[in-house]
Design brief:
The protein is α/β, with parallel strands linked by helices. Helices cover about 35% and strands about 20% of the residues. It contains 25 helices and 20 strands. A 6-stranded mixed β-sheet has the order 12-11-10-13-15-14. A 5-stranded mixed β-sheet has the order 3-2-1-4-5. A 5-stranded antiparallel β-sheet has the order 19-18-17-16-20, covered by helices on one side. The radius of gyration is 50 Å and the shape is flat. The N terminus is likely disordered.
Amino acid sequence: MSAQAVTKRGILSTINSLFDPLGFLAPVVLEGRLILRELVSTKVDWDETIPQDIARKWENWISKVAKVTSLDIRRSYFEGSISEMSGLELHVFADASVSAISAVVYVLGNASNGDRQIGFVLGKSKLAPEHGHSVPRLELCAAVLACQLYQCVSEQLAVSLTKVVFYTDSRVVLGYICNKTRRFYQYVSNRVLKIVHVSSPNQWNHVPTELNPADIGSRGASVEQLKQSSWLVGPNFLLEECLSNPEHYPLMEPDCDKEIRPEVVVRSTKVVVGQSLARKVSKFSTFDTLVRALSTLRHIAVSYHKNLPCKGWHLCPAAKDVQLRNEVKLSLYRDVQLEFYSKEVECLSVGKALPRDSTILSLDPKLGSDGLLHVGGRLSRSKLPLLEKNPIVLPGKHALSRLLVEHHHNLVHHQGRTFNEGAVRSAGLWITGGKRLVSSVIQKCVVCRRLRGRFECQKMSDLPEDRVEEASPFSYVGVDVFGPWEVVARRTRGGHAASKRWAVLFTCLVLRAVHIEVLEDLSSSAFTNALRRFVSVRGKVKMYRSDRGTNFVGAIDNIQVTAINVEDESVKGYLKKSGSVWVFNSPHSSHMGGVWERMIGVARRILEAMLLGVKSLSHDVLVTLMAEVSAIINSRPIVPVSNDPEVPDVLSPSALLTQKLECDQVSLGNMDVKDLYRSQWQQVQYLANQFWVRWRKEYLQSLQGRRIWHEDHDPLRVGDVVLLRDAEVARNFWPMARVTRTFPSQDGCVRKVEVCVAKDKQKVFYTRPVVELVLLVSAGSS
């Protein structure tokens, strides 16, 4: 053998002499074939002496092959007869490398004693092509080889199999086999077709390379390496009692794989014959645009058939001819009538009476010389123009009718429904259901909303906790400033020097009692002093509520309170626990402070009556008058006066504050009358309890009803375009804004929002109540 190994012909003869049809020595023989391939690349003649480096590799391989006799290969599949085994399974492994492809088949069975046994059936290794094949292609070829070995074994092995499983360590190949959506180029497509013809995709599994016995068959090995591998004995994981096959990966093919054909997007054009006119008309925004487009198309169509100076697709002034535009309008009216009133046109054209179920029977329609349906009516003897006596009938549900109404709505400069209907009738058109259509157009018109749209509103909210819970007087207070009044400050040589005074009104949100302090000016310092006087008399306040007056905002820095913006709900709950808090209403939301705004109105009326005939007013007199005003307001009934003689008392804020009544005849109930004179504290406690019982039963229940804003309305949403009210300018100059944020209340209703306004080419954000906004365009509208 060594004598023949000096030439290429001798090497080939030696390799062919190692006849191994079952593939036991396939990895060993593959190593010799790799040496032969290397020799062929040197272009040495068949009978010439081979180079020394290849000769050394060949001699080394020959010395390894000589150790084949030391291999112990079991010829039978199992220790016993295969007929005694049950649950026979075939497991086929495939692998590839840049040098070769390989596949090996094992049979697995259960012995009568319960042991699982595995036997080598068939193995094969083949040299891979030298050029033009990527590793995924070689792995796919190995999978084809595995299917070929399975076909050979299944034909020769005359036993029934319970399961056949294929393994590969290439996830790309698994993606090829399991693919159902993409197409491959011819090379991959043919081999995938061979694989799925022999096996099904759910029979293929992924196995790690280190557990794949076919791996050594694709790389070549010596006899010693073959002994240590699992090529002859099979992988150990197949012998486990609870067989856990490697995971199956039905992977999708990667989009970057060059073996996959790119997706070709084909766009088809579908020509719809007999498309309704309504769908065509609905694509135009105005009636003028529709007429202009159809006039241009008609002019172009005529230019192809008549000898005109202009031909083909073009824009021409001739398309704006008045006669041509009138012909287009009549053509549109005719098409609409044929679509809706075809039966009526057919009957009138042959002189028949209209059917009884006709929707325009009451209009007494007539067929005019222009081929259109006109209103017959009862004005034939009038001197009105012909089109006004016999207007053209059009259905109100057609898109063309809406365009016509919008067209005449713009002509009358967005006036009301009567103006709009008159313009349509004057144009010689009678639209069925015209009132409803005109109202719909006006309601959706953005310009009309800007000019006359109603302000948004929302259902009246529930009362806050500080108005419905029992609490000490002036624990929860609403604050506002009103005035001014001119007072005489001092005498001067020229007369009296006059100055102004204001008043700050504190309203108890629970009792509806008031406390008034006089201010010398509207500064934060003056207000802070008034607030300190109020707290000194009435005690600590848990919560203040007010608008966003500058004196209020400035005063919170001087007093030990924490300001809470009502928009900041996350901080509100935390700060509410820390002493006094000050809650500001959103800007321009005087209706949110109605509980104290109402008291200011009452105080103004009382002062007007008191100051009637007073020419000069001093500071001292004004302070006294404010004290009397407070007493009068606090003595008012807060519940309807009862006609029951057994309940002569009137529940008022003064009674709740002072525990005193003008009438001392109080029902004592089960309490001993002696206790009222024996213990003064019991008398006070008893009266206080009686007042709070009446406050709960009479006053609190009177707050149940909602006097205005009874219904839920669609809330404003982010992206809505609104008109922002500005009391200082006319409505035409009110700015438009876009809603950028909403602030839902506890009941989910949106009563204030944040809007963005463009001011001096910059974005400015305001917080406003919805009652100050007019919705122009909803974000959800098309």
